[in-house]
Amino acid sequence: MRRLPSVCLSFEVHQPLRLNTRLSSEELSRATVENIPDAYLDNTLNREIFQRVTRKCYIPANDIILRAIEEAASTGRDFKVNFSISGVFLEQAERYAPRLIEQFKMMVETGKVEMLEQTYYHSIASLYGPESEEFTEQVEMHRETIKSLLGYEPKVFENTELLFNNSIARKVAEMGYKGIIVEGVDWVLQGRSPNHLYLAADTSLKVLTRNYRLSDDIAFRFSERTWPGFPLTADKYASWLAATPGDYVLIFVDYETFGEHHWPESGIHEFLRHLPREALKHENIIFNTASEIVMKFEPVGVISVGDLETISWADVEKSTDAWLSSEMQMTCFNALKRMERPVKKASSQNILRAWRVLQISDHLYYMFTRRGPSGVVHAYFGYTDQINMFYAMMRALSHLQLVTSEVIGGDVGEAVRLLRVVPPDRAFHYHEDGRYIGLSAHSLYELLQTIPLATKNSLIFHMACRQLERWVRWTIGDRVLADRIREIEADTSDELVKKLVTAVGERIRELESRMGF
Q1: Sign of CA dihedral 211, 216, 218, 219
Q2: In terms of C-beta distances under 8 Å and separation of at least 24 residues, what long-range contacts does 149-152 make, across chains too?
Q3: Cα(273)–Cα(275) distance, integer angstroms
Q4: Residue partners of 124: CB distance under 8 A and separation at least 6
Q5: What is the pLDDT of residues 168-189, one digit of tens each?
Q6: Residue 122: which region, alpha, beta or left (left: phi > 0; alpha: psi -120 to 50)?
Q7: At 432, is the secondary structure helix, strand, or coil?
Q8: Distance (Å) of CA 298 to CA 184, 225, 304
Q9: Which of 32, 93, 276, 418 has the fewest beta carbons under 10 Å from its own?
């Protein structure tokens, strides 16, 4: 196997719009369609964080890369990099640090920097299913923004957090992209090297696999004093690259690695400053952009990932678990997904914008509840605890659904209102013998799902006390379903479960039919 000729150095650039976790339900009730989504956001915190990371990371790292491009050119060599920049990052850069936009424009103008495609809102809309058009629309938004703001038309795709499966690959191929960057997950590669191109199953889309070991040496281990590779110097790392077999090596890290995750005092800026020079001392190393890699090499095999096995670059699991492993995350994800048709039917740019802001993947990421190495990483990035994040997200989702129902109006609007989620403090919490049994319903959809999961004694208690009926009548506001529940009689607990499931399921289908679902 030949020595590595190409290094594909790539950076993920993203800062979320963080929610206001201190906003009470009472304050939110006064928000109107005219002031959303700002009513949901902590813009003071967003500005402070963005400006801090700009000082510590973005400005100095951009300066280093621009100088490295110039220095390499003066010696007759090329230093090239790739950036995947979210739309919400560019919004904040325009608002809080316009110099960043100028720097990225200067990079593009050198001809040595490639801009990758992604979703505008750094969302997981690619997981919404075949009926959804949101993923494609966010990609189109991102493409237009990169083209108008930076003068570049992306050719290679990088999905949010490298989320990838066969369905995503087909959509990306249909949109005309020639390549996609994915995580070099061991079970997917099945012993094959990440340093070769592959084809996505049943498409002509070329797959560039990230070398996560060499990437994480920088992203996670650079400041780890107990790591055998410490201290990681540019010449040492360049020697590792030069000795790596394959066609190319894809190094893909968060851009915040350079000054935020590893502070400037760690020497990370010096590492980035010297890396191009040290790498180009090796005659067998050249730097290529992602589209150059796609054109330069031929695939050596096929990558196939089933839709229920979606991979990402997140955590040790490298799956969707970072966003979809807890009940809180699933409640929010399902609500977001179900809102697409009502939101777009409302024909309000403010409502559409608010829904898309709530899709930013970081909101779900902050609700991750597992312990262990992955939990430590999530805790580092989070700005509040998981429960606070869940409350903030649910308050915003419920409010947005109510606003949407009012704008739509009529029978359709009423159906939207009745199928909305409610915040945790208004959810139906199942109890038995005066104790919470760890089961809650935040909507009629979740009521349908949880009835068969509740203990029989709990259901009998809530029916006898009419608590279930009252929650549906007064919290959800569905008098029709409440009346049906009140009329239910059953001789056994199994019969009670069956009749409740039937009543709730039929009512949901009636309401969905009213909305044209």
Answers
A1: positive
A2: 149/90, 149/94, 149/101, 150/101, 150/104, 150/105, 150/108, 150/115, 151/105, 151/108, 151/109, 152/108, 152/114, 152/115
A3: 6
A4: 160, 161, 163, 320, 323, 333, 359, 361, 364
A5: 999 999 999 999 999 999 999 9
A6: left
A7: strand
A8: 17, 40, 17
A9: 32
Structural tokens at position 233: 């110097």
Q: What are 483's two structure tokens? A: 């009346």
Q: Who's near 470: CB < 8 A, 6+ residues apart?
A: 482
Domain boundaries, the chain: 6-16+51-123+135-309, 322-408, 427-517
Let me know the angle formed at the C-alpha of 351 by 347 and 353, rounded to the nearest 5 degrees: 105
**Contact present, 294 and 178 (Cβ < 8 Å):** yes
Retrieve residue 162's tokens. 């490298």
Phi, psi of 362 (to 5 degrees): -60, -35
Cα distance between residue 13 and residue 366, in whole Å: 18
Catalytic center residues: 161
Query: 468-482: per-residue pLDDT in tens?
Result: 999 999 999 999 999
Structure tokens at 435: 């104790």
Closest C-alpha among 428, 439, 438 to residue 471: 428
Residue 481, helix vs strand vs coil: helix
d(CA 26, CA 262): 40
For tokens 């739509």, name the residue. 408
The string of pLDDT tens digits covering residues 406-459 is: 999 999 999 999 999 999 999 999 999 989 999 999 999 999 999 999 999 999
Task: Answer for the pair 357, 16: CB distance below 8 angstroms, yes or no.
Answer: no
Query: Tokens in use for 112?
Result: 């040595």
Per DSSP, the residues of 259-319 read TTTB-GGGTHHHHHHHHHHHHTTSTT-EE--HHHHHHH----SEE---GGG-B-SSTTTTS
Give 1's pLDDT tier (boundaries 50, 70, 90). Answer: very low
Residue 111, both tokens: 């001809």
Q: Which band of pLDDT confidence, cut at 50, 70 and 90, is reported for residue 24?
A: confident
Please give the angle made by the CA atoms of 480, 484 and 486, to the nearest 5 degrees. Answer: 115
Length of the chain in terms of residues written: 517
- Between the alpha carbon of residue 127 and those of residues 136, 188, 300, 307, 352, the distances in Å are 12, 19, 28, 9, 19
Fold for 6-16+51-123+135-309, please state it: 7-stranded beta/alpha barrel (3.20.110)
Token pair for 178: 């020639």
